[in-house]
Amino acid sequence: MPKHNIRKNIDQVLTALGAIIVIFLVIIGALAWWAYSFTTTNVTSELASQKIYFPPKNSPELSSPQIGPYLDQYAGQQLLTGPEAKAYADHFIAVHLSEIADGKTYAQVSTESLANPGNTQLKAEAQTLFQGETLRGLLLGDAYSFWTVGHIAQIAAIACFVGAGLMLIFVLLGLWHLSVL
Questions:
Q1: 92 and 134 in contact (C-beta within 8 Å)?
Q2: Domain count, the chain
Q3: Which of 70, 109, 161, 162 could form a disulfide with 91 if both were Cys (CB 3.0 to 4.6 A apart)?
Q4: Angle between helices 120-138 and 106-115 (to 10 degrees)
Q5: pLDDT at position 158, please?
Q6: Distances in whole angstroms, Cα of residue 115 to Cα of each of 109, 129, 130
Q7: Shortest CA distance to 106 belongs to which of 80, 125, 120?
Q8: For residue 181, is pLDDT > 90?
Q9: Domain extent at residue 97
Q10: How confident is the model at residue 1 (pLDDT cuts 50, 70, 90)?
Q11: pTM score, two decimals?
Q12: To the nearest whole percent, how much of the chain has pLDDT over 90?
């Protein structure tokens, strides 16, 4: 087989593989974009249904140096995004929870409450900490985490589309090269 035919066969195989890679990258990119859209839309709609609002601007709730610098930018707005959920969980709920029971966690207070069943203050603190830590965990674990995963999928989708575009250029160059052989 002459060298010209071997070179042409190699070019045909590489061009075909390039075309397959383009299709693969477009499919993966489309799935990643769907994952991004699905997660961020669901997080936003679930958060919207909870009707959580940041305290209004200049309100006493934002005056704490542990809260205000982190939440002033969202003052008065409805909590709708993962970053907002993280800010609210870390700089509003967590700060308020630290003010209950001298900063003890639900697990610590619950253990004390079980050891002292007649202590209504410990029981109330345990209940409040349970509710607050549960909401905080949901905001961080569900809203913020899924929002972040969604945005990672968005970056992956963009990378796949860029890769597909570059590979398409190589495929077109390969087809052009085959036409001039």
A1: no
A2: 1
A3: 70
A4: 150
A5: 98
A6: 10, 17, 17
A7: 125
A8: no
A9: 3-180
A10: low
A11: 0.83
A12: 90
Q: Furthest-apart CA pair in the chain: how many Å?
A: 96
Lookup: tokens for 63: 């005056």
Residue 12 identity: Q
Q: How far is CA 77 from CA 33, 50, 72, 74, 80, in A?
A: 27, 13, 10, 6, 9
Using one digit for the tens of pLDDT, what is the confidence trace for 76-102? 999 999 999 999 999 999 999 999 999
Ramachandran category for residue 104: left, alpha or beta (phi over 0 → left; psi -120 to 50 → alpha): beta
**What's the rounded Cα separation, in Å, for the pair 57 and 41?**
27
Q: What is the DSSP string of the chain?
A: --HHHHHHHHHHHHHHHHHHHHHHHHHHHHHHHHHHHHHHHHHHHHHHHHT-BPPPTT-GGG-STTTHHHHGGGTT-B--SHHHHHHHIIIIIHHHHHTSGGG--HHHHHHHHHH-TT-HHHHHHHHHHHHHHHHHHHIIIIIIHHHHHHHHHHHHHHHHHHHHHHHHHHHHHHHHHHHH-
As a whole number of angstroms, the distance between CA 116 and CA 16 comes to 74
The phi and psi torsions of 78 (rounded to 5 degrees) equal -80, 140
The two tokens of residue 103 are 């900063």
